[in-house]
Amino acid sequence: MDLKELAAAYQAAEAAGDLDGCAACLIEAIHLAVQHPELEGTQELRYFEDGRLLVLIAAAIFAMERGENQLAAYFFSNVPQDILESSAWFPECWGTLGRLQARLGNAAEGTACFARHFKRYPDDEAAWFQLGNLRYHAGEYLSAIRAYRRALG
After folding, report:
1. What distance in Å separates the CA atoms of residue 112 and residue 27, rounded to the nearest whole number?
2. How far is it, in rounded angstroms, from Cα 50 to Cα 67?
């Protein structure tokens, strides 16, 4: 599918309220833009670039939901750090990144992301549970128990 067809498919999905269809189109648009730098500046690509940061974040989350963790990491790595720091853009950013790091087996990075998440959302039971899983799989059993206890309230 070329960008023109992809833009039309995105518009159709958007009009139908099909969020999965929109996300799939956005992911494909990013893939095409990365694989074909000559497309930069085309009208169709500009259509997608208007919301590039939100597109990258949405694509990363969508890729995570589909179990494509390496792809999600790639998308997140292209979001500027200052955007990730801004709670206005993506308030749950650090919890999402913590889950991604856990899925990738990066215990230290995941723990650091969850620590930042808990500064804003100290009572996020699901995140505490995921941190417990992360620490359990890292062999940090006492830390895992403490996280599980926080998850239970």
Report:
1. 27
2. 27
Helix (H, G, I), strand (E, B) or coil at 46: helix
**CA 90/CA 108 separation, integer angstroms:** 22
- pLDDT tens for 56-112 read 777 788 888 888 888 888 888 877 776 676 655 566 788 888 989 998 889 999 999
Residue 31's nearest CA partner among 69, 70, 71 is: 71
**What does DSSP assign to residue 37?**
G
Provide the CA 41 distance to its chain's centre, in angstroms.
26
Neighbours of 3 (CB within 10 A): 21
Rounded Cα gap, residues 142 and 153, in angstroms: 17
Cβ 113 vs Cβ 97: under 8 Å: yes
Mean pLDDT of 16-37: 73
Nearest CA-CA partner of 76 in 64, 65, 66:
64
Distance of CA 111 to the CA centre of its chain: 17
